[in-house]
Amino acid sequence: MNQVEQWFSILQRKRLSISDFSSTAQLAEHLLAFVTEWNAQAHPFNWSTKSIAKVMAKCEMPLVRRLAA
Description:
71% of the residues lie in helices and 0% in strands. It is an all-alpha fold. The longest helix is centred in the middle third of the chain and has 17 residues.
């Protein structure tokens, strides 16, 4: 998983997963607010052996289980 995928995963969890947007303008507003907040406290991603192990475990899962996850 590269850093862009990681960033979009964070975006989805923090802004998109429980939100309902009445318009694309409202969605854009929420996205821009997230980018502004993120940039104010941006930091590099630190990979640990635990995070690498989680990614590798997903790669080793049978295809059927990965599609269901």
